Amino acid sequence: MLDIQKRRVRLLLFITAVLALSITAEKFRELVGKEAASKSGQFTFMNCFDMGSGSLACTAKEGVKLYVNNIRSAHLEMVRQRAMEKALADAVTEGLTPSEAAKQAQKISAKATKLAARQAKRILGPIISCGWDFFEAMYFGGSMTEGFLRGTGTLFGTYMGGFHGEERFGKLGYLAGSHLGSWGGGRIGLMIYDIISGLKFMFQSIQPEYESSSYAEDGPEYAESYTNQEDSTYYETSEEKQEESKWFGLF
């Protein structure tokens, strides 16, 4: 019961944090303007239903991701089948009963599947999704920073979504979770990029005002000191000329 409450609290905190991040990123996006905002973020999920180039791009992108993630699931299934066949053959040679052989084969196949999942989980699907979103950001005219942040968000989102989806619902949960995690992670990466751009814009706009205000404060003092220096220089020069004229008068 307590574990379920903790999960609900974590989910609520995560949703609240994402909403706050989204609102903040939208405000900064309006502050910096379209030119400095994230470029690839302009292509939203609704563009997939324009029955044109947007639909074609979404079909190709999600098709590649689905194919790659399905390769992983097929690989795990093949590993499980091979481990079960080998375990059954070993159990028969050991002289175990069919029920005991089946139980032993299930345990061995489950261990082999977990090991293969750990090996493949961090490799194919998340990396392909990360690279795709990185080059997509560059294609839309984004900077290297935008591509890096979006790709990093996609990488972690695909991994976490697939992990939790498979933990809850198995193979279908992994496919659905990796897709949703990929999309959500990429969006969070773009939000972080817009927030960084907005903060940079604010610092750049505040710095010239500070410099101009400091110059305005120091300006009168600098002008007064410069005037005093000129007066003292002029006074010293006039005294030197008077002394020289006296000496010439003696000769």
Keywords:
251 residues, mainly alpha, 5 helices, 88% helix, 0% strand, elongated
Describe it for me?
It is a single chain. The protein has 251 residues and is mainly alpha-helical. The chain has a domain at 45-195. The chain is built from five helices and no strands. Helix 2 (53-94) runs antiparallel to helix 3 (98-121). 25% of the residues are buried.
Assess the beta-strand content as a share of residues. under 5%
Total helix count?
5
Q: What structural class do helix, strand and pairing data support? A: mainly alpha
Quaternary organisation: single chain
Give the rounded overall mean pLDDT.
73
Give a brief description:
By secondary structure, the protein is mostly helical. It contains 5 helices and no strands.
